[in-house]
Amino acid sequence: MAYFVMNSSPFELAQEAAAVIASATGVANHDIALTLGSGWGKAGELLGETIATLDASDVPGFSSSGVPGHSGTIRSISMPNGKAALVIGARTHYYEDKGVRAVVHSVRTAAATGAKIMILTNGAGGIKESWSPGQPVLISDHINLTANSPLEGATFIDLTDLYSKRLRTLAKTVDPSLDEGVYVQFRGPHYETPAEVQMAKAIGGHIVGMSTALEAIAAREAGMEVLGLSLITNLAAGVSPHPLSHQEVIDSGKAAEPVISKLLADIASAL
Ligand code: HPA
User: Fold this and answer.
1) Counting atoms of ligand 1 from 1, which one is nearest the CA of 237?
2) In which element (H, E) is residue 137 found?
3) Which pLDDT score, from 0 to 100, does residue 223 have?
4) Which of 115, 158, 258, 268 could form a disulfide bond with 110, CB atoms 3.0-4.6 angstroms apart?
5) 125 lines ligand 1 (CB under 6 A)
6) For position 69, what pLDDT does the model report?
7) 236 pocket-lining for ligand 1 (C-beta < 6 Å)
8) Can you list the domains of the chain with their CATH numbers?
9) Does the beta carbon of 191 lie inside 6 Å of ligand 1?
């Protein structure tokens, strides 16, 4: 069933979504939420015992993903450490033109379910030549090139330490080899030109992608602590000697999936 709720604020809609999740899962409060991007999908299974799986389109404000390779479910998982995790496999991308409210609805819903930590994952292009496809990296900060914000009106939110140093340090205790970098969100859905990649590098970027920054801002507005992880699915345009393709992104996500999903489950359990 699809829900179209008119005239309600994005926060009311998130409350409605959280109420549906609570009644469908029987879990009144979630502690931690994870958005699984390309390549990270198997982490849900490794996190713990699945209590319930919902079709995202049955939850107010969500619509099924239109992107091949992205799933459209919301799962409640009981972790061995006793915490409840909400696993969101239904991302709305900014390039889908459904508006920024739709893009950050999942994050606001996660906050409304009680989650205090938001783990945002994605598949992205790498600018650092030392990186290889299949490598996970931590997001240390972002540059938002969408010229948009999920914040409405005069809502001034501090973004210093948006990608929590505390959580990055904990993630590195799980895998000390994790490198980190600045994520640059472009609108997409086209991949960047080599010149745009060089610009992203010149302004301090290391990772290029089409998600996450807007979601991270909304998560911070909602009071959550954010951990961001990118799977480098390809070297960015011009850094890579080959043209980019969505299939390459999906294939390297699939190849890396077992390793990075285990890593993500271990990190989430350590937080
Ligand atoms: N650029 C933007 N988004 C992406 C890329 C990229 O190179 N790879 C996967 N998502």
Assistant:
1) 7
2) strand 135-144
3) 97
4) 115
5) yes
6) 47
7) yes
8) 10-270 (3.40.50.1580)
9) yes
The predicted pLDDT at position 31 comes to 98
Q: Is 133 in the pocket of ligand 1 (CB under 6 A)?
A: no
Residues of the chain with pLDDT under 70: 1-7, 64-71
Q: Which stretch of DSSP H or E encloses residue 191? A: none
- Prediction pTM value: 0.94
| Stated length of the chain | 271
Q: Say what the pLDDT of residue 3 is.
A: 52
Q: State in Å: Cα 191 to ligand 1 middle.
A: 6
Establish whether 196 is a catalytic residue.
Answer: no
Tokens standing for 207? 């990772």
In one-letter notation, the amino acid at residue 251 is D
Amino acid at 137: V
State the closest ligand 1 atom to the C-alpha of 186, by its place in the atom list counted from 1: 2
Please state, in angstroms and as integers, the Cα–Cα distance from residue 117 to each residue in 33, 113, 219, 225, 247, following that order. 6, 11, 9, 5, 31
Residue with tokens 């390297």: 252
b/e 152-167 (16+ beta carbons within 10 angstroms → b): eeeeeeeeeebbbeeb
CA of 209 to the centre of ligand 1 (A): 5
